[in-house]
Specification:
The protein has 88 residues and is an all-alpha fold. It is rod-shaped. The protein has one helix at 2-87.
C-alpha cells in the first residue's frame, strides 16, 4: 500500500511538473506575442503621427494656395477692369 501511495505521489508530481512546464511555455509564447504586438503598436503610432504631420502640412499648403488664388483673382479682375476701361 505504501508503494501504491508513493507511486501515486510520483505520478502526481510528474503531472504537476508537466503542467508547470506547459504553463511556462504558454507564458513564453504570450510574452513573445506581446512583444510583437508592442512593435506593431509602436510602428502604427509612429505612422499615425507622421500622417498627422502630413495632414497639418497639407492644410497649411491648402491655405497658402487659397490666399495665392485670391490674390491672383484680384489681380486678374484689376487687369480685366483696366482692359475694359481702355476698350471703352
Amino acid at each position: 500500500m505504501a508503494g501504491n501511495t508513493m507511486e501515486a505521489i510520483k505520478k502526481k508530481m510528474q503531472a504537476m511538473k508537466l503542467d508547470k512546464e506547459n504553463a511556462f511555455d504558454k507564458a513564453d509564447q504570450l510574452e513573445q506575442k506581446l512583444n510583437e504586438q508592442k512593435i506593431v503598436y509602436e510602428k502604427s503610432n509612429e505612422e499615425i503621427q507622421n500622417l498627422g504631420k502630413r495632414i497639418t502640412q497639407l492644410d497649411t499648403d491648402l491655405e497658402t494656395a487659397k490666399v495665392q488664388l485670391t490674390e491672383q483673382n484680384e489681380k486678374l479682375e484689376n487687369v480685366n477692369a483696366k482692359l475694359a476701361a481702355r476698350l471703352r
